[in-house]
Amino acid sequence: MPHDFMNPTLYIITCIHCNSFKQLNQEMSIIYRLSGSVFVSILLFCYPTWTQSAKCNSQDKKVLKEIEKAIAIPPYFQSWTTDSGCCEWYGVRCDEITNRVISLNIDDGTVVAGKIPDAVGDLPYLKTLIFHKCPNLKGPIPESITKLKNLTTLWFTNNNLSGPIPSFLSKLKNLDYINLSFNNFSGPIPASLSELPKLGYLRLDRNQLTGSIPESLGNLALQSYIIIGHNQLSGKVPQSFANADFTTLDFSKNKLEGDISFLFGKKKTLQTADFSRNLFQFDLSKVEFSNNLIFMDLNHNKIFGSLPEGLTKLELQTFNVSYNRLCGKIPTGGRLQIYEQSAYLHNRCLCGAPLPACK
Description:
Elements: H1 21-31, H2 58-71, E1 92-94, E2 101-106, E3 114-115, E4 128-139, E5 153-164, E6 177-179, E7 184-187, E8 201-203, E9 208-211, E10 224-227, E11 232-236, E12 246-250, E13 255-258, E14 272-274, E15 279-280, E16 295-297, E17 304-305, E18 318-320, E19 325-329, E20 349-351
Parallel strand pairs: 2-4, 3-4, 4-5, 5-6, 5-7, 6-8, 7-9, 8-10, 9-11, 10-12, 11-13, 12-14, 13-15, 14-16, 16-18, 17-19, 19-20
Antiparallel strand pairs: 1-2
């Protein structure tokens, strides 16, 4: 992906348990750039503690102990002792000047149980809040987090959280990163999320969301990332997305329908497009593509027409148009003959390499 290094606001990046830098790189290949030159802010916890001053704000320490009492199963919190500074505790990071807690990262699923306590809203300087891989963490997102006016990163992934995605998240005006994937959230996507002026990364995939995509989501910041695949969303993609410019769009494995050709275009910055396993229906023949596009998966839809010659000019790393209604000869050139036959199978009458020759 192209990177913009002009005057970046660079934050520290989190490795959720650093036994897998490969996994981190895969995640960051998608979220490396949010909006303009602002990079994702998530904290690196590659060691049990963060080396810094032992000083600790007494109120922050009290709140952290309340959180521990509500959800902890020893020994994950064994470093959280009353005779040590909370800035040295595992999963906690403090500002080096003020010693106020600015990041809380709970990422060990076997030792956390219960609901996210209301006390998380009593850390007023918190910028990053992470609950990751905690299958025994259940219930809704507490409304108390609306008190976290400095919060930029909300990462609740691979848990067992449920209930609706709350509309009150729109009160956190500094949020630029929301990841609520791999939970049991249900109901519609709140239209109010578009009221977050800095939001550049929205990931809600692998939940049980229903309803249509809000029209207002097309108003997010330029070059945003929207990943809402593997839900039960239905209806048409709003026309507001035609005027937007996204870097990543993932609508895969839903029940969406209609024409989405307007999501493509030569002047778009779209790099990753996964619209697979839906009910999309449009003529692919005259669709034009941006040279930025490196991932396109359209499999299992009702797309018709032929493959446009413009595909030969792309450096697509991933390409799949199988299980559609396409016909005609596969254009020769570029990378189109490199892909496996499986990328083209089960269409109406596609032919030519890598499929059998046209008759």
